[in-house]
Amino acid sequence: MSSQSTTILIFACTMMILLSMFVVESSVRINETRLTRVRLHLNKINKPFVKTIQSPDGDVIDCVVSHLQPAFDHPKLRGQRPLEAPVERPKGHNSSDERVETIQLWAESKEFCPKGTIPIRRTTENDVLRASSLRRFGRKRKIRGVRHDTMSGGHEHAVAFVNGDKYYGAKASMNVWTPEVTDASEFSLSQLWVISGSFGNDLNTIEAGWQVSPELYGDGYPRFFTYWTTDAYQTTGCYNLLCSGFVQTNNRIAIGAAISPRSSYNGKQFDIGVMIWKDPKHGHWWLQFGSGVLIGYWPSFLFTHLQKEASMVQFGGEVVNSRSRGYHTNTQMGSGHFADEGFGKAAYFRNLQVVDWDNSLLPLTNLHLLADHPNCYDIKAGKNNVWGDYIYYGGPGRNAGCQ
User: Fold this and answer.
1) Active site residue 98
2) Where is the Neprosin PEP catalytic domain (predicted)?
3) pLDDT, tens digit, for every residue of 353-388?
4) Exposed/middle/buried for 271, CB within 10 Å: 0-12, 13-18, 19+?
5) Active-site residue, 25 included
6) Catalytic residue chosen out of the listed positions 98, 156, 186, 207
Protein backbone atom coordinates (compact mmCIF):
# COMPACT_ATOMS: atom_id res chain seq x y z
CA MET A 1 0.00 0.00 0.00
CA SER A 2 1.37 3.43 -0.95
CA SER A 3 2.05 6.06 1.70
CA GLN A 4 -0.68 8.21 0.16
CA SER A 5 -3.23 5.38 0.50
CA THR A 6 -2.11 4.79 4.07
CA THR A 7 -2.55 8.48 4.89
CA ILE A 8 -6.06 8.49 3.38
CA LEU A 9 -6.98 5.33 5.32
CA ILE A 10 -5.70 6.79 8.61
CA PHE A 11 -7.60 10.01 7.93
CA ALA A 12 -10.80 8.11 7.16
CA CYS A 13 -10.46 6.00 10.31
CA THR A 14 -9.79 9.09 12.40
CA MET A 15 -12.87 10.83 10.99
CA MET A 16 -15.01 7.76 11.69
CA ILE A 17 -13.78 7.65 15.28
CA LEU A 18 -14.42 11.37 15.74
CA LEU A 19 -17.86 11.06 14.18
CA SER A 20 -18.67 8.10 16.44
CA MET A 21 -17.52 10.06 19.48
CA PHE A 22 -19.66 13.01 18.37
CA VAL A 23 -22.73 10.80 17.97
CA VAL A 24 -22.20 9.20 21.38
CA GLU A 25 -21.61 12.58 23.01
CA SER A 26 -24.71 14.04 21.32
CA SER A 27 -26.75 11.03 22.42
CA VAL A 28 -25.50 11.41 26.00
CA ARG A 29 -26.39 15.12 25.94
CA ILE A 30 -29.87 14.35 24.59
CA ASN A 31 -30.40 11.65 27.24
CA GLU A 32 -29.16 13.97 29.99
CA THR A 33 -31.47 16.73 28.76
CA ARG A 34 -34.44 14.35 28.66
CA LEU A 35 -33.63 13.00 32.12
CA THR A 36 -33.42 16.55 33.47
CA ARG A 37 -36.86 17.35 32.00
CA VAL A 38 -38.27 14.09 33.39
CA ARG A 39 -36.98 14.90 36.88
CA LEU A 40 -38.43 18.40 36.75
CA HIS A 41 -41.79 16.90 35.76
CA LEU A 42 -41.59 14.38 38.62
CA ASN A 43 -40.94 17.20 41.06
CA LYS A 44 -44.12 18.83 39.79
CA ILE A 45 -46.46 15.83 40.05
CA ASN A 46 -44.98 13.96 43.05
CA LYS A 47 -46.14 16.15 45.91
CA PRO A 48 -44.69 16.41 49.45
CA PHE A 49 -46.10 13.66 51.65
CA VAL A 50 -46.66 13.05 55.34
CA LYS A 51 -46.44 9.24 55.15
CA THR A 52 -45.56 6.50 52.65
CA ILE A 53 -46.95 2.99 52.32
CA GLN A 54 -45.12 0.23 50.44
CA SER A 55 -47.36 -1.97 48.29
CA PRO A 56 -46.61 -5.69 47.73
CA ASP A 57 -46.51 -5.05 43.96
CA GLY A 58 -43.67 -2.54 44.33
CA ASP A 59 -45.75 0.64 44.23
CA VAL A 60 -45.05 3.40 46.71
CA ILE A 61 -48.15 5.19 47.94
CA ASP A 62 -47.60 8.74 49.18
CA CYS A 63 -50.08 10.25 51.63
CA VAL A 64 -50.39 13.85 50.41
CA VAL A 65 -52.25 16.64 52.21
CA SER A 66 -55.49 16.90 50.26
CA HIS A 67 -55.23 20.57 49.26
CA LEU A 68 -51.66 20.02 47.98
CA GLN A 69 -52.63 17.34 45.43
CA PRO A 70 -51.97 18.00 41.70
CA ALA A 71 -55.52 19.31 41.07
CA PHE A 72 -54.72 22.44 43.03
CA ASP A 73 -51.99 23.41 40.60
CA HIS A 74 -54.86 24.51 38.33
CA PRO A 75 -55.20 28.32 38.26
CA LYS A 76 -58.92 28.09 39.07
CA LEU A 77 -58.27 25.90 42.13
CA ARG A 78 -55.07 27.40 43.48
CA GLY A 79 -55.39 28.26 47.17
CA GLN A 80 -58.68 26.37 47.57
CA ARG A 81 -59.55 23.15 49.37
CA PRO A 82 -61.58 20.10 48.30
CA LEU A 83 -65.35 20.45 48.45
CA GLU A 84 -67.50 18.57 50.92
CA ALA A 85 -69.29 15.51 49.55
CA PRO A 86 -72.69 16.23 48.02
CA VAL A 87 -75.57 15.61 50.39
CA GLU A 88 -77.75 13.94 47.77
CA ARG A 89 -76.74 10.84 45.85
CA PRO A 90 -78.83 9.90 42.82
CA LYS A 91 -82.26 8.64 43.84
CA GLY A 92 -82.57 4.89 43.51
CA HIS A 93 -78.95 4.27 44.53
CA ASN A 94 -78.71 1.08 46.56
CA SER A 95 -75.29 0.09 47.84
CA SER A 96 -76.46 -3.46 48.62
CA ASP A 97 -76.25 -4.44 44.95
CA GLU A 98 -72.46 -4.10 44.93
CA ARG A 99 -69.89 -6.51 46.33
CA VAL A 100 -67.31 -5.24 48.77
CA GLU A 101 -64.66 -7.98 48.56
CA THR A 102 -62.49 -6.21 46.03
CA ILE A 103 -59.66 -4.20 47.54
CA GLN A 104 -56.36 -2.78 46.37
CA LEU A 105 -53.01 -4.47 46.89
CA TRP A 106 -51.43 -1.53 48.70
CA ALA A 107 -54.18 -1.64 51.35
CA GLU A 108 -54.02 -5.37 52.14
CA SER A 109 -52.20 -4.55 55.37
CA LYS A 110 -55.21 -2.39 56.38
CA GLU A 111 -52.84 0.58 56.65
CA PHE A 112 -54.40 3.71 55.14
CA CYS A 113 -53.52 7.34 54.76
CA PRO A 114 -54.41 9.68 57.64
CA LYS A 115 -57.55 11.80 57.44
CA GLY A 116 -56.91 15.06 55.63
CA THR A 117 -54.56 13.34 53.18
CA ILE A 118 -55.10 11.31 50.01
CA PRO A 119 -53.13 8.29 48.71
CA ILE A 120 -51.24 8.93 45.46
CA ARG A 121 -49.25 6.30 43.59
CA ARG A 122 -45.75 7.72 43.29
CA THR A 123 -44.62 8.25 39.69
CA THR A 124 -41.07 7.05 38.94
CA GLU A 125 -38.49 7.97 36.31
CA ASN A 126 -39.10 4.64 34.60
CA ASP A 127 -42.84 5.36 34.42
CA VAL A 128 -42.18 8.56 32.49
CA LEU A 129 -39.36 7.16 30.35
CA ARG A 130 -41.64 4.36 29.07
CA ALA A 131 -43.91 6.97 27.45
CA SER A 132 -43.41 7.90 23.81
CA SER A 133 -42.67 11.46 24.94
CA LEU A 134 -42.87 13.57 28.06
CA ARG A 135 -45.70 15.55 26.47
CA ARG A 136 -47.78 12.39 25.97
CA PHE A 137 -47.05 10.87 29.40
CA GLY A 138 -50.24 10.10 31.28
CA ARG A 139 -52.44 10.56 28.21
CA LYS A 140 -54.23 8.22 25.89
CA ARG A 141 -53.01 8.11 22.33
CA LYS A 142 -54.84 10.49 20.04
CA ILE A 143 -57.81 8.69 18.56
CA ARG A 144 -58.74 9.34 14.95
CA GLY A 145 -62.41 8.84 14.21
CA VAL A 146 -63.49 8.64 17.84
CA ARG A 147 -66.89 7.41 16.75
CA HIS A 148 -65.46 3.89 17.16
CA ASP A 149 -65.07 3.18 13.46
CA THR A 150 -62.41 1.08 11.75
CA MET A 151 -60.13 4.11 11.40
CA SER A 152 -59.77 4.62 15.13
CA GLY A 153 -56.00 4.70 15.24
CA GLY A 154 -55.62 1.15 16.55
CA HIS A 155 -58.27 1.52 19.28
CA GLU A 156 -60.87 -1.27 19.16
CA HIS A 157 -64.06 -1.48 21.21
CA ALA A 158 -66.87 -3.77 22.27
CA VAL A 159 -69.39 -1.45 23.91
CA ALA A 160 -73.01 -0.92 24.78
CA PHE A 161 -74.25 2.65 24.55
CA VAL A 162 -77.29 4.89 24.86
CA ASN A 163 -77.78 8.26 23.21
CA GLY A 164 -80.53 10.58 22.04
CA ASP A 165 -81.29 12.02 25.49
CA LYS A 166 -79.69 14.16 28.20
CA TYR A 167 -77.72 12.16 30.76
CA TYR A 168 -76.39 13.29 34.13
CA GLY A 169 -74.42 10.20 35.07
CA ALA A 170 -74.08 6.45 34.82
CA LYS A 171 -73.57 3.46 37.07
CA ALA A 172 -72.56 -0.19 36.64
CA SER A 173 -70.64 -3.05 38.25
CA MET A 174 -67.93 -4.76 36.19
CA ASN A 175 -65.91 -7.85 36.99
CA VAL A 176 -62.13 -7.52 37.08
CA TRP A 177 -59.75 -9.72 35.07
CA THR A 178 -56.07 -9.82 34.19
CA PRO A 179 -56.08 -9.81 30.37
CA GLU A 180 -52.81 -10.47 28.59
CA VAL A 181 -51.35 -7.39 26.89
CA THR A 182 -48.73 -8.47 24.38
CA ASP A 183 -47.11 -5.20 23.35
CA ALA A 184 -45.73 -2.58 25.75
CA SER A 185 -47.50 0.24 23.89
CA GLU A 186 -50.92 -1.44 24.08
CA PHE A 187 -53.53 -1.56 26.83
CA SER A 188 -56.73 -3.40 27.69
CA LEU A 189 -59.43 -1.70 29.72
CA SER A 190 -63.02 -1.99 30.88
CA GLN A 191 -64.82 1.21 31.78
CA LEU A 192 -67.83 3.42 31.51
CA TRP A 193 -67.72 6.61 29.45
CA VAL A 194 -69.78 9.77 30.02
CA ILE A 195 -69.62 11.67 26.73
CA SER A 196 -70.70 14.99 25.24
CA GLY A 197 -69.89 17.09 22.19
CA SER A 198 -69.48 16.03 18.60
CA PHE A 199 -67.02 13.31 17.70
CA GLY A 200 -64.56 15.87 16.39
CA ASN A 201 -61.99 17.89 18.28
CA ASP A 202 -64.53 19.14 20.83
CA LEU A 203 -65.26 15.70 22.34
CA ASN A 204 -65.66 15.76 26.14
CA THR A 205 -65.37 12.51 28.11
CA ILE A 206 -65.20 11.33 31.71
CA GLU A 207 -64.07 7.73 32.10
CA ALA A 208 -63.51 5.27 34.96
CA GLY A 209 -62.95 1.54 35.36
CA TRP A 210 -59.99 -0.84 35.38
CA GLN A 211 -57.11 -1.26 32.95
CA VAL A 212 -53.93 -3.21 32.25
CA SER A 213 -51.30 -0.88 30.76
CA PRO A 214 -47.63 -1.97 30.82
CA GLU A 215 -46.53 1.37 29.38
CA LEU A 216 -48.24 3.45 32.04
CA TYR A 217 -47.62 1.24 35.09
CA GLY A 218 -44.77 -1.10 34.13
CA ASP A 219 -46.61 -4.36 34.86
CA GLY A 220 -49.64 -6.49 33.98
CA TYR A 221 -51.85 -5.83 37.03
CA PRO A 222 -55.41 -4.58 36.52
CA ARG A 223 -55.65 -1.13 38.09
CA PHE A 224 -58.48 1.22 39.03
CA PHE A 225 -58.19 4.29 36.81
CA THR A 226 -59.87 7.49 35.71
CA TYR A 227 -59.52 9.66 32.61
CA TRP A 228 -60.93 12.90 31.19
CA THR A 229 -60.53 15.04 28.11
CA THR A 230 -62.23 18.10 26.66
CA ASP A 231 -60.67 18.06 23.17
CA ALA A 232 -60.79 14.44 21.98
CA TYR A 233 -57.58 13.33 23.75
CA GLN A 234 -55.40 15.93 22.03
CA THR A 235 -53.92 18.24 24.68
CA THR A 236 -56.28 18.22 27.66
CA GLY A 237 -56.83 15.69 30.41
CA CYS A 238 -54.92 12.70 31.69
CA TYR A 239 -55.07 9.44 33.56
CA ASN A 240 -55.64 9.47 37.30
CA LEU A 241 -53.89 12.35 39.11
CA LEU A 242 -51.12 12.88 36.54
CA CYS A 243 -52.23 16.44 35.77
CA SER A 244 -54.32 19.13 37.44
CA GLY A 245 -57.98 18.25 37.05
CA PHE A 246 -59.62 15.53 39.16
CA VAL A 247 -59.93 16.46 42.86
CA GLN A 248 -59.61 13.45 45.16
CA THR A 249 -61.35 13.52 48.56
CA ASN A 250 -60.92 9.91 49.74
CA ASN A 251 -58.02 8.67 51.91
CA ARG A 252 -58.51 4.91 51.38
CA ILE A 253 -58.52 4.37 47.59
CA ALA A 254 -55.47 5.09 45.41
CA ILE A 255 -56.35 5.83 41.80
CA GLY A 256 -53.93 3.91 39.59
CA ALA A 257 -53.25 1.23 42.21
CA ALA A 258 -53.62 -2.52 41.53
CA ILE A 259 -56.93 -4.26 42.27
CA SER A 260 -56.99 -7.51 44.23
CA PRO A 261 -58.44 -10.12 44.06
CA ARG A 262 -59.39 -10.68 40.41
CA SER A 263 -61.84 -12.98 38.65
CA SER A 264 -60.70 -16.41 37.47
CA TYR A 265 -61.93 -18.49 34.55
CA ASN A 266 -64.60 -20.93 35.74
CA GLY A 267 -63.90 -19.72 39.26
CA LYS A 268 -64.93 -16.97 41.66
CA GLN A 269 -65.90 -13.62 40.16
CA PHE A 270 -65.00 -10.25 41.67
CA ASP A 271 -66.47 -6.99 40.48
CA ILE A 272 -66.21 -3.30 41.25
CA GLY A 273 -69.01 -0.77 41.24
CA VAL A 274 -68.45 2.58 39.51
CA MET A 275 -70.82 5.53 39.44
CA ILE A 276 -70.25 8.95 37.88
CA TRP A 277 -72.90 11.63 38.32
CA LYS A 278 -73.39 15.38 38.13
CA ASP A 279 -74.12 17.06 41.45
CA PRO A 280 -77.24 19.17 40.79
CA LYS A 281 -76.18 21.81 43.33
CA HIS A 282 -72.65 22.68 42.16
CA GLY A 283 -72.53 21.02 38.74
CA HIS A 284 -69.35 18.99 39.37
CA TRP A 285 -69.04 15.36 38.25
CA TRP A 286 -68.51 13.01 41.22
CA LEU A 287 -66.99 9.52 41.20
CA GLN A 288 -68.12 6.69 43.46
CA PHE A 289 -66.25 3.39 43.81
CA GLY A 290 -67.53 0.15 45.34
CA SER A 291 -70.28 0.33 47.95
CA GLY A 292 -70.89 4.02 48.26
CA VAL A 293 -67.27 5.18 48.61
CA LEU A 294 -66.88 8.68 47.16
CA ILE A 295 -63.48 9.18 45.53
CA GLY A 296 -63.67 12.80 44.40
CA TYR A 297 -64.87 14.99 41.55
CA TRP A 298 -64.08 16.59 38.22
CA PRO A 299 -64.77 20.37 38.48
CA SER A 300 -67.29 21.45 35.85
CA PHE A 301 -65.00 24.22 34.57
CA LEU A 302 -62.68 21.58 33.09
CA PHE A 303 -65.24 20.95 30.37
CA THR A 304 -67.17 22.69 27.64
CA HIS A 305 -70.15 20.48 26.70
CA LEU A 306 -70.08 18.51 29.96
CA GLN A 307 -70.67 21.71 31.91
CA LYS A 308 -74.31 21.03 31.00
CA GLU A 309 -74.97 17.32 30.48
CA ALA A 310 -73.85 14.22 28.62
CA SER A 311 -75.32 13.18 25.27
CA MET A 312 -74.08 9.58 25.36
CA VAL A 313 -73.12 6.92 27.90
CA GLN A 314 -71.05 3.84 27.05
CA PHE A 315 -70.14 0.64 28.91
CA GLY A 316 -67.61 -1.95 27.75
CA GLY A 317 -64.07 -2.72 26.73
CA GLU A 318 -61.30 -1.10 24.70
CA VAL A 319 -57.88 -2.29 23.53
CA VAL A 320 -55.08 -0.84 21.45
CA ASN A 321 -54.13 -2.99 18.46
CA SER A 322 -50.70 -1.70 17.42
CA ARG A 323 -50.08 -4.38 14.74
CA SER A 324 -46.42 -4.04 15.68
CA ARG A 325 -45.68 -7.47 14.20
CA GLY A 326 -47.71 -6.85 11.06
CA TYR A 327 -50.87 -8.62 12.22
CA HIS A 328 -53.63 -8.20 14.80
CA THR A 329 -52.49 -8.17 18.40
CA ASN A 330 -52.92 -11.09 20.81
CA THR A 331 -53.95 -8.60 23.47
CA GLN A 332 -57.07 -9.82 25.25
CA MET A 333 -60.17 -7.83 26.17
CA GLY A 334 -61.96 -8.63 29.42
CA SER A 335 -61.31 -12.27 30.32
CA GLY A 336 -59.89 -13.04 26.87
CA HIS A 337 -63.03 -15.06 26.04
CA PHE A 338 -66.00 -14.25 23.84
CA ALA A 339 -69.34 -13.06 25.18
CA ASP A 340 -71.18 -16.32 24.37
CA GLU A 341 -69.25 -18.18 27.08
CA GLY A 342 -71.28 -16.35 29.72
CA PHE A 343 -70.91 -16.15 33.48
CA GLY A 344 -67.62 -17.25 35.03
CA LYS A 345 -65.88 -17.24 31.66
CA ALA A 346 -66.66 -13.98 29.88
CA ALA A 347 -66.30 -10.46 31.28
CA TYR A 348 -69.51 -8.67 32.25
CA PHE A 349 -71.10 -5.39 33.25
CA ARG A 350 -74.26 -5.69 35.36
CA ASN A 351 -76.92 -3.31 36.68
CA LEU A 352 -76.33 -0.76 33.92
CA GLN A 353 -78.11 2.50 34.75
CA VAL A 354 -78.10 6.18 33.82
CA VAL A 355 -78.88 9.30 35.87
CA ASP A 356 -81.65 11.53 34.50
CA TRP A 357 -82.42 15.27 34.85
CA ASP A 358 -84.14 14.63 38.20
CA ASN A 359 -81.01 13.00 39.69
CA SER A 360 -82.67 9.57 39.52
CA LEU A 361 -81.03 6.29 38.51
CA LEU A 362 -82.97 4.64 35.70
CA PRO A 363 -82.66 1.44 33.65
CA LEU A 364 -81.48 1.83 30.07
CA THR A 365 -83.74 2.36 27.11
CA ASN A 366 -82.79 2.04 23.46
CA LEU A 367 -79.53 0.20 24.21
CA HIS A 368 -77.19 -0.21 21.22
CA LEU A 369 -74.30 -2.68 20.87
CA LEU A 370 -71.16 -2.09 18.85
CA ALA A 371 -68.11 -4.32 18.28
CA ASP A 372 -65.56 -2.83 15.88
CA HIS A 373 -64.14 -6.26 15.03
CA PRO A 374 -66.53 -8.96 16.32
CA ASN A 375 -64.21 -11.80 15.25
CA CYS A 376 -61.63 -10.36 17.67
CA TYR A 377 -63.83 -8.99 20.47
CA ASP A 378 -67.62 -9.22 20.69
CA ILE A 379 -70.55 -8.24 22.91
CA LYS A 380 -74.08 -9.37 23.79
CA ALA A 381 -76.75 -7.91 26.07
CA GLY A 382 -79.45 -9.27 28.35
CA LYS A 383 -81.81 -8.35 31.17
CA ASN A 384 -83.12 -10.12 34.28
CA ASN A 385 -84.54 -9.34 37.70
CA VAL A 386 -81.23 -9.68 39.54
CA TRP A 387 -78.74 -7.98 37.21
CA GLY A 388 -81.11 -5.60 35.47
CA ASP A 389 -79.52 -4.60 32.16
CA TYR A 390 -76.23 -6.41 31.62
CA ILE A 391 -73.66 -7.20 28.94
CA TYR A 392 -71.04 -9.86 28.32
CA TYR A 393 -68.12 -8.75 26.16
CA GLY A 394 -64.48 -9.40 25.24
CA GLY A 395 -62.33 -11.81 23.31
CA PRO A 396 -58.85 -13.15 22.65
CA GLY A 397 -57.74 -10.80 19.90
CA ARG A 398 -55.79 -12.61 17.20
CA ASN A 399 -57.32 -15.98 16.24
CA ALA A 400 -58.33 -17.83 13.07
CA GLY A 401 -61.07 -15.28 12.36
CA CYS A 402 -59.11 -12.25 13.53
CA GLN A 403 -55.98 -11.56 11.53
Assistant:
1) no
2) 149-403
3) 999 999 999 999 999 999 999 999 999 999 999 999
4) buried
5) no
6) 207
